[in-house]
Amino acid sequence: MLVSTAVLVLGVAAAGGPADTPADLVLTGGRVWTAETEQPWAEAIAIRDGRIVYVGDAAGAARYRGPKTQAVALGGRLVVPGLDDAHIHLMSGALSLERVDLIEDGTVAAVQARIRAFAAAHPGSPWVLGRGWLYGSFPGGLPTKQQLDAAVADRPAYMECYDGHSGWANSKALALAGITKDTKDPVGGAIVRDPATGEPTGALKEAATSLVESKIPLPGAEERCQLLLRALRLLNSQGVTSVQDAGYTPAQLDADLPLMERALREGQLTVRTTVSVQMSPGDVDAPVARATALAKVHRGPLLRFGAVKGYVDGVIEAHTAAMLEPYSDDPAQGAGKPNWEPSALDAAVTAADRAGLQVYLHAIGDRGVRMALDAHEAALRANGRGDRRGRIEHIETISPADYPRFKALGVIASMQPLHANPDQNNADVWSRNIGPERASRGFSWRNIEKAGGRLVFGSDWPVVTSDVMRGLYCAVARKTKEGTPPGGWLPELAVSLESALRHYTIDAAYASFEEAEKGSLAAGKRADLVVLSEDLFRQPPDAILKAKVLLTVMDGRAVYHDPSLPMP
Ligand SMILES: [Zn+2]
Question: Which run of H or of E encompasses 285?
Fold first, then answer.
């Protein structure tokens, strides 16, 4: 229906005669990749009142130029639809902007240097906070308080591991949290101790992290609002015009929804945001009711609710992902226990689905993925086939028997290319824990595609960077940004550039029920687009890492502009 409307509009416009109303903005002389099957390429776009009114050749676009039309000459540059990050944690990402980011640092010295520099640049912060350290950076696999004291001694300092499952405190932070050698381990957590003295080493595992985290002051509402606006600007500078937020607890909503509503009211919500509400075992009815009520208030196009999210399992690195067979490195770990009883998960998904909500399920291990598929299937059987678009988030490894079920059940595979970044952590911990056979199905994007499943791509920011170009590169090359390993890791599971871009645009729009409004460049759609410095389609994959965003347009308005692209 949509395609035929777009073709009709284009056909009328191209049929001759001056266009009746001039456009606000005309972009010409570009290589425009539209994400439309019927007309994948064009050279010009005209935009009026926030909508695309024309996509086609330069002559056609010229007829939309009036005296007040802003005209941008693209000089052959690539234009793609506005990028849609289908799995993000927007407020966590916003808070991470005031924290030191350690994800790129491979050695203790490099980690300490970055923390030291950050502390020096933030002399007024009562705490020095950071995230992103990797187990492999530290001898023995865990950091110590002495290593952190060497970087920050005057204030409490706390650094979260990249996976969120471990923490690293300095001596001042341990003292503030009252952690001594006499402190008992909390349920579900461990205070790592020196085997000789029993003194806490500074490393904290799982639930023990909250002993320190609960002492960290949350910035005030005004500061968090400013951080949210910074996050939106950062995303715009990366070409992102839409995000799908993977789960707020009801308490987080109480704190953060007013900030999003304020940004919306003040016209500063420059990234379209879809938000899901977290449900958990024993706590299903209230989140379902909350998401249902919010979906009536916020129905887009800038802020929308209508989904719930549940965590079926944990992560492979911590042996908490649910596997069909025991872990390979340490059989004593068993196969990982799912967070839900299968029958409770089926009932929760069915109830949310009956309430008209979309359901996101975090599932990482092959058993977790199967349970998630089973739960979506249970909802379908109970409630009948409808347009439900159930989703599974992450899918780090999968049984081959489950590939065809995504298509059969209409379940969306929501995956994050940079989680497959073949760095040391991936090789040393992730692959070791599940062994070579299961690791060979790691992040099986191409296999799910080949089985007819619909994929959407996202970042999981702040777990990894929100920079879509980094994700896009990993999606097509399966290499680190340093280009390793040379042939790529499991290159047969990579996807084509065009597929990857579809997963970040039109497919992602489908995942939030908005494909009729956005996600491709066609007459009638919302004018969300990005101009890139490199033509990714005509250069080798390395060009993706060099590509700069030159212009981001959302609703026809430039929300980011690099001065190297002249704009009148
Ligand atoms: Zn996530």
Answer: helix 285-297
Question: 70 C-alpha vs ligand 1 centroid, how far in Å?
Answer: 39
Query: Which tokens in the block code for residue 450?
Result: 């080949």
Angle between helices 250-265 and 221-237 (to 10 degrees): 70
Residues 6+ apart with CB under 8 A from 254: none
- The burial class, CB within 10 Å (0-12 / 13-18 / 19+), for 519 is buried
pLDDT, tens digit, 9 for 90 and up, residues 494-535: 999 999 999 999 999 999 999 999 999 999 999 999 999 999
Spacing, Cα 246 to ligand 1 middle (Å) = 6
Q: What is the pLDDT of residues 179-213, one digit of tens each?
A: 999 999 988 788 999 999 999 999 998 889 999 99
Selection from 125, 95, 119 nearest residue 223 by Cα: 95
| 553 CA → ligand 1 middle, Å | 26
pTM higher than the cut 0.85 = yes
Cα(236) to centroid of ligand 1, in Å? Answer: 20
SS3 414: strand
> How many A from CA of 437 to the centre of ligand 1?
26
Contacting residues for 191 by C-beta, under 8 A, at least 6 apart: 179, 183, 185, 200, 204, 208, 211
Ligand 1 centre to CA of 427 (Å) is 21
Q: pLDDT for 27-82, tens place per residue?
A: 999 999 999 999 999 999 999 999 999 999 999 999 999 999 999 999 999 999 99
Highest mean pLDDT among 158-172, 308-322, 535-549: 535-549
Contacts of 406 (CB under 8 A, 6+ apart): 373, 392, 412, 413, 448, 451, 452, 453, 454
Place of tokens 């890791």: 489
Check: CB of residue 129 under 8 Å from CB of residue 114.
no
User: How many C-beta atoms lie closer than 10 Å to residue 117's C-beta?
Assistant: 12
Q: Distance from the CA of 132 to the center of ligand 1, in angstroms?
A: 14
Instruction: State the amino acid at position 484 in one-letter form.
Output: T
Rounded to the nearest angstrom, the distance between the alpha carbon of 458 and the centre of ligand 1 is 9
Which residue shows structure tokens 């489908």? 510
- Distance (Å) from CA 420 to ligand 1 centroid: 14
**pLDDT, tens only, 310-363:** 999 988 888 889 999 999 998 888 999 899 999 999 999 999 999 999 999 999
